[in-house]
Amino acid sequence: MARNYNIPELRRLDIEHHLPAQANYAEIVSLGGSRIITRAEGSTIYDGDGNALLDGMAGLWCVNVGYGREELVETATQQMRELPFYNTFFKTATPPTVLLAAKLAEKLGGDLKHVFFNSSGSEANDTVFRMVRHYWKSLGQPKRNVFISRWNAYHGSTVAGVSLGGMKLMHAIGDLPIPGVEHVMQPYKFGEGFGEDEEVFAARAAQEIEDRILKVGPENVAAFIGEPVQGAGGVIIPAKSYWKRVDAICKKYGILLVVDEVICGFGRLGEWFGFQHFGVTPDLVPMAKGLSSGYLPISAVGVSHKIVEVLREKGGDFIHGYTYSGHPVAAAVALKNIEIIEREGLVGRVKNDIGPYFAEALKRIADDPIVGEVRSLGLIGAVEIVSKKGTNERFTGEEGKAGPIVRDHCIKNGLMVRGIRDSIVMCPPLIITKAEIDRMIDIIGRSLREAEPELRAL
Ligand code: PXG
Hints:
Distance between the termini: 44 Å
Bound molecules: 3-[O-phosphonopyridoxyl]--amino-benzoic acid
Shape: globular
CATH topology of the largest domain: Aspartate Aminotransferase, domain 2
Mean pLDDT: 97
Low-confidence stretches: none
């Protein structure tokens, strides 16, 4: 049931006391406080001012099974009654934690038989950072401590997450990255290989990784980390051959491959994990978001048996972990969430039905005079906004203005999307209906038309 909130008072308190995540605090004040979201159902969110918004972002790339799942509420309630908390530090574990680890091992397949739990994607990548270095040290190769990542990658907001990530604006806050992270080019063909043959571009982007390994010295490189499809970077979808090449390069030099599935996992690309779509075999797999569909904070790192054997034989104490590692309520909800995805066949739905439908629907706005490209894979997609059709030229001649302007029109028209630099990105719940996809595309089309005069006046 919807509760009656005093929205003006909440907005006042928001300004007075609350510091929202990744925000410009002056802007929040000038806007008179944040938009207060009060409830949600299916693929629709409702704000306190009575607006219904189609949630084109599944919350923040996470509410894969959609809102309003009573089963998840009941599971959490039951687990809270039975055992609301116990840790995994005292040579102890809880039933949901162990069962979830086994379930994830089944979904990951291959050698990825082990799972370490955390509460967020950032924490998962901190675990990756420490485990990878500990692994090489245990093997007697302490010099192997360099991570290779890509510019514009997103791996979280903690010190290790930001450092592994390749967002320059984030690096500037907190004087990051920390030493030991090397960044190479991203496989962003529209931006960095416009007009180039897809395969030639994929080979060039992968070659940069090999070149950097040789420059740093293979004996110093611990791991390569990448998102199957870069999400926060603007939904950058590489050619399949790119990932095949990356995998081969890692194996050639004995470097660990870390595939960050925080956004792509749990059906987003039409497979349980993005690496399965691209046909590669990672050694470590951080995941979060869709693991619990955002109903509770939980993340995990899938770890290969090859690594765990070394940790068991030579690793001694792995002095790492969080109070909430393997939180029983979050784990129980994640297990039930996976059960829902399985029961409703949502992964197959993305691959064979709604994903292809989304791709077709996007084509309807591809001819818009300010659209440079539409692209999607499964249920993640982007619309590139350009000032001159047929080029990748941006409004005002510099990157970054168009996305937020078009996004604001979309929100006004009833659709929540992200504006990332000069693109609009979409990542809806996996249960979104075809009629809702049509509405999403219609709203983006209308918003592009409304925004064009504003963009031309920049
Ligand atoms: N890896 C990837 C690939 C992510 O997308 C994280 C790690 C970190 O997860 P946590 O749970 O610590 O936030 C993410 C998170 C955006 C945006 O601007 C994207 C994320 C988080 C916040 C904002 O689109 N992705």
